[in-house]
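Dear support,

We are seeing what looks like truncated structure output for some complexes. This example has three components. We would appreciate it if you could run it in full and send us the complete token output so we can diff it against ours.
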Amino acid sequence: MGDFVFPNELHVTWTVMIVMYPYITGLVAGAFIVSSLFHVFGLKQLEPIARFSLVSSFAFLLFAGLPLLNHLGKPERALNIMITPHFTSAMSGFGFVYLTYTIIVILEIWFHYRADSVDRYNSPKASWKAVYYILHLGCTLRNEETDRIDHKIVKTLAGIGIPVACILHGYVGFLFGSIKANPWWSTPLMFIIFIFSAIVSGISVLIFLYLFVNFLKKHKIDQNALDMMVRFLWGFMIIAVVLELMDLLSLAYEQTERWAVLKYLITGPLWYTYVIGQILICSLGSFLLLTGIVLLKLPQKLSNILVFLTSGLLLIQVILMRWNVVIGGQLVSKSYRGFTSFMPGFLEKEGILVAAIIFIVPFLMLRQFDRIFPFFPASKKNIS
Amino acid sequence: MKNNSHVKRIFALLIIAGIMFFVIRQLLVPDTFGVLGHYRAASLKDILNLEQIYQSKDVCAQCHDDIYNIHEKDVHYDVQCENCHGPGNIHVANIAAFLKQNHLEPTKSGKYSNEVLKAVPNKLVQMPKEYTLEGCLYCHRKLESRPHDFAQIDPKEHFKALHVTDISIRCVECHSPHEPLYLLDPVSEARIHPAILECEYCHKTRPEKSHKDVKNHPVIFECEDCHTAIVQDFKKREHAFMQCTQCHLYHPENESSGRIYKNGNKQFCLLCHEKKPFKDQHKGPHGLPQIDVSKHLEKMPGIMGKDAQFIQKSKTACLECHYNFIHDSSLIKTLREQKQWAKKVNL
Amino acid sequence: MGKKSKSITRGEFVRLALYSTAGVCVGSMIARGNLKDEPIGDLSHDLENFDWAFIVDTTRCIGCGACVRACGIENRVPDGYFRTWIERYEIDKNENIRVDSPDGGKHSFKQNQMQDKQVVKGFFVPKLCNHCRNSSCTQVCPVGATYHSPDGVVLVDRKHCMGCGYCVQACPYGCRYISYDIGTADKCTFCYHRIHRGLPTACVQACPRRARIYGNLKDPHNPVSAVLHARRYSILKPEMATNPKCYYIGLDLEVI
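Here is the complete output from our reference environment:
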């Protein structure tokens, strides 16, 4: 394999920020789906984490647009995407899908928390009364009927939200998969792969946080909820990995012109992040761990520790997958004759420090929200 | 307050926000957007009004027609002035402003007279003269990927063949950039000639054997096949080691034919034969005879007065006397009348 | 449950909503006052007489780089990026091929790539934006900042582009880049500002070998059609079905 790239390809255009964006929207979509599994499909075991999932989705959603805004050459024109959207472009969907999804999530949270919030407003020692008043648009009535209405609306919104969440993340997959010019990206499977790996990352982050937070607070976890999430994680993870590998397998088998250069991509620049990292350690390793956890009868504590480990591994798997897709695709020259190289900077405008900050802040926000409206109230049955 | 008031209120808010969004959006869409397509049509005007930077040869010719005329006659006619001298927009703008300010007009033919040109101060017009070695080598460096019929040299080999000892010398010490080959007739008057195939067209390096000595070699037309008498005679003379095309420059136009130049310009001969401080003199058995042009004629006994003036002004001055180093004069029409000089100087 | 809350009436709510709407509208009108566009008049009618096309003759290119330098100056192309560039191909006697484009060919080529091996075949291929009729770049622009002009040139609107870089990814030929100078996408404009003043593009003018030809396909005597009817030609990446308007004479199989 030679080393020729087109002169304009020496510089990689989409870097760390564009790796972060699908990762965060993946967490958004995945967390929302878990919440909807309870609200729409009535899986009662998931009730303890339903609210937590929903708010996590929202916290990540607030920060999902930030990497894109940071990346744009002219961020002050970001709203052009809503003012003059060009609907032949997958990216034009960003404006309206994002907006619709945000409205759905905000509405769902509003209706979900209304009961608690109105109670607080009406309680004698309430502070911030003005804020609550505005928040409720001046309606501070609560009774069984309003509760029933609220639940019904939440269920409807959760139902509508599932396809919207899928589109929110799926369009990113389509955005990559529809680029015929890029041999690593171009595949019809990309849309589906992104949706499933988003769900995997969403469930993983919820499990990870759930175990982590309750460990810190020394609360007892709801084992049924956890077990159900682990089973869903196992199932979705298998589908996601099978889809990713199918894409690779058919490339390697059909051996069209693309394979001639992509095989050098996989064994060369992407060897550690793709073959060793994403596939062997994080996919195969997680698969073995989860299969063991689900099928074998392990002691509770060991099982939960392994679940924690696996969810961490899967979080890493998904970000590696985003890295390999976004960066890997741009390393291949469109001349099919070589690769360029990329090493992210730490302190750059689109560097690792900024990415880390954008990633961590939603977690900090969740912690603050937890202080106002605790996700896991410390009732008698919770304290171990 | 009804039980579903809060629902009505929030959805009312949503609907109002939606309407506001569309109203605001309508206000923010640029005027010319969507007129010709899904883009801002005024952008076409933005791009059309961009500044033009490169002028062209024709613009340079308005003032520099003396150089322009020389340039158009020689082999660099297709090389833009600005390729070597850099873009001319500031130069032209400054001069135009100066001329306007001082109410100076062009002549009837549209060109500016020398007096007008001299009036323009130097610091307004200074343009770089790019003629370092590297500038010429951008085109003329010998590279394997360049078409074989394109004039290209390896500087080391070129200097060696010409006995140049100072390798830092610039091309322009011998070749004028405006008329590098000092052609006798303008390029536009070159004659059509069937394709000339050099050995290098097929072979990497010039083979030592003649193709006639090789079995089953494809039949090739050589100059000798049509111009038999001249070539056979040429081979007996001092310049026999050279190829015909080194002086009779051939320029291919397509696969079957091209243009050929007669040549004979004195300056062309001097490219090899002029004495220069950076060349070594007559060294070894294949030494290159070099002359000091100004002093050369003084050495010639028997040529004085009007004859000397005639020779000095003649474009084919070298051939007036030295034709027999190249071709037998009886074979060449234009030289038949010049035999008189050879007799006078006993050549 | 709880004490009686002070709820606002419907009337108050509606009034509040209407006032805020009015406020936002006034603010937007003020903001929009800064976005006035120049009217275009009869422009599209004039432009419809043209349909620009380009020819690159790879049998004539000597890789001197004059086109790259001229384009860079004429269009203020930022350092390290190229609206046009030259690729060099060398094939040795074992059929190994080496391709390079040092700094896009801007300072020509200093030496042969294959030093010790014998080159049996070599050539130069200048490349530029193909101004495809069915371009991927205009398809994927999310805001309508890159478009086809009425005379068939693919252009970028610098005042509307937000620099997302999607078009750069979508171009199969690597012609586009994000200009760090201005923060938007950029590429060859076919020297639009020159061709409509009757001047050749900067690269066509600079080329000393007539390896580049441009013309208006709607002109019955245009030079592009004349060459296309006389010589064998090809296009880059035909499988991408972008229907480019840049044709290559003497394009070798090795050129992708």
